[in-house]
Specification:
By secondary structure, this protein is an alpha+beta fold. It folds into two domains: about 290 residues, Aminopeptidase; about 120 residues, Alpha-Beta Plaits. The chain is about 35% helix and about 20% strand. The chain is built from 13 helices and 18 strands. The strands form five sheets. Strands 1-2-6-3-7-17 form a six-stranded mixed β-sheet, with helices on both faces. The chain has a four-stranded antiparallel β-sheet with strand order 11-13-9-14, covered by helices on one side. The longest helix has 25 residues. It starts with a helix and ends with a helix. The model has no long low-confidence stretch (mean pLDDT about 95).
Length: about 475
């Protein structure tokens, strides 16, 4: 442990400078104008892995942007850790809201980051967190303490849906074989209290269309005699929750796996101020499913929310019409073991059933994704907890995330291995927003903690074998 810390201290400025150079490349995968920069970043990641001592590194072509793959196999009898990350970043827009240019990284001290934070697009999501793993690998190589085999799979399309990743994984299952997958693309509670993301919610997303008369009608001449699709749609949406904010779609909860009392107890240890939460959102009170806490409602429970609703006249002034059509976009966040296709079918069946015969209903499914959970008795979780405990001085707290990362479920389906989400970012780091930043403390602490994960995972794996 002291040798790891000493090596990091000696190379601190170099580690920071290398990340700053990587952040200067605008690898925006969503915009074709940045294609050469995305490809340049892939080359930079390959070079960094080579310089860190990886035996074999290659750029693997895909239908989209390439995947940087590397492996360092020291003994086939040892466990293998597959590290996943991404080198592409979100667009920087709106650029005028940045305090400094998004691709000219600067380090500024803040109240949250007294040691300084690196302000740049991609600093936290995910270049900074991905690069921690390359530097942690360098530490283990230089100190001759790499305890296991390690593989790297760094993609360039995460911010646009990872389409080529699925294509690559399905064609390279043998190449990517592993005993655990390690990802740093999430966050933790604070710099004093680490946490491990143990679950991700899945997603079912649909758009609904309600049609009444064959044209917009004069609300004076037809009002009260013809069904108003907007009125009907709002009544239908309102009926999707009962008085306890329980979702009323038949069969919706049939496959929900309840979090164990032990996990709920551990989750409840996370520091949380309800007053601060309400103040931050400028709301009088919280709202949600009865019998669950705020943190449980947005993580271990499924939800149904209207993301957009429209119809009729919404321009300036008045136009007295009964609209012919009304629309809404609805998302359902799912928990283990809900299947997004099954939930979508249940929604379609129910929504069509509750529609009165005075309107026609059309439901158009959009994208979806499976939920994911890693049990806290998994050796990968235990290894991560031991690593955090050693570097932070306190055990990590398991946390379920309300968000979705569909590739994690893909990995388990195709590669048959669990994923450990060891994030070092903070909620305040403004990922996807102007002024994204990542703490210097968090970056260096990640490099210090990751080698310990490899050590403890190998130790636990050998005991189990």
């Amino acid at each position: 442990m002291s040798a790891i810390k000493s090596y990091i201290d000696q190379n601190k400025q170099r580690f920071i400078d290398e990340l700053l150079n990587l952040l200067r490349i605008p690898s925006v995968s969503a915009d074709k104008a940045f294609k050469n920069d995305v490809l340049k970043t892939a080359d930079a990641v390959k070079a960094a892995l080579n310089q860190a001592g990886c035996k074999m590194v290659e750029i693997c072509e895909t239908p989209g942007y390439p995947i940087v793959y590397g492996e360092h196999i020291i003994d086939e009898k040892l466990p293998t850790v597959l590290v996943y990350g991404h080198y592409d970043v979100q667009p920087a827009d709106p650029i005028e809201l940045w305090d400094s240019p998004p691709f000219e990284p600067v380090i500024k001290k803040t109240e949250t980051h007294p040691e300084g934070a690196i302000y740049a697009r991609g600093s936290c999501d995910d270049k900074g967190q991905m690069y921690m793993h390359i530097k942690a690998f360098e530490v283990m190589m230089q100190l001759d303490i790499l305890p296991c085999n390690i593989k790297f799979m760094i993609e360039g399309e995460e911010e646009v849906g990872s389409e080529s990743l699925e294509w690559f994984v399905k064609r390279n299952q043998s190449k990517l074989s592993n005993d655990v997958i390690l990802i740093s693309d999430t966050g933790m509670i604070s710099n004093e209290q680490p946490s491990i993301t143990t679950g991700l919610r899945g997603l079912s997303y649909v758009e609904v269309e309600v049609t009444g008369p064959n044209r917009d009608l004069h609300s004076g001449l037809y009002g009260g005699a013809v069904a108003n699709p907007i009125n009907i749609l709002t009544k239908m949406i309102a009926s999707l929750h009962d008085e306890n904010n329980h979702i009323t779609i038949p069969g919706f909860y049939d496959k929900v796996i309840e979090a164990s009392p032990e996990e709920r107890t551990e989750m409840a240890k996370a520091p949380f101020s309800l007053d601060a939460y309400k103040n931050a959102l400028d709301i009088e009170d919280v709202y949600g499913e009865t019998s669950y806490s705020t943190n449980e409602r947005n993580s271990i429970r499924p939800t149904l929310d209207v993301n957009g609703i429209w119809g009729g006249y919404i321009g300036e002034g008045a136009k007295t019409v009964i609209a012919s059509k009304a629309y809404a976009k609805i998302s359902m966040r799912l928990v283990p073991d809900q299947d997004p296709d099954e939930i979508t079918n249940l929604f379609v069946e129910h929504f069509e059933k509750i529609a009165p015969n005075v309107v026609k209903v059309k439901v158009s499914p959009h994208h979806g994704g499976h939920p994911y959970v890693t049990p806290i008795d998994n050796i990968g979780y235990q290894a991560a907890n031991k690593a955090y405990s050693e570097t932070f001085g306190v055990p990590a707290i398991p946390q379920r995330s309300g968000g979705s990362i569909p590739i994690v479920a893909l990995f388990e389906k195709e590669l048959k291995s669990k994923t450990i989400l060891m994030g070092f970012g903070l909620d305040s780091d403004a990922i996807h927003s102007p002024n994204e930043h990542y703490g210097v403390f968090n970056y260096l602490k990640g490099i210090e903690t990751i080698p310990l994960f490899h050590h403890y995972f190998t130790e636990l794996y050998n005991k189990e074998s």
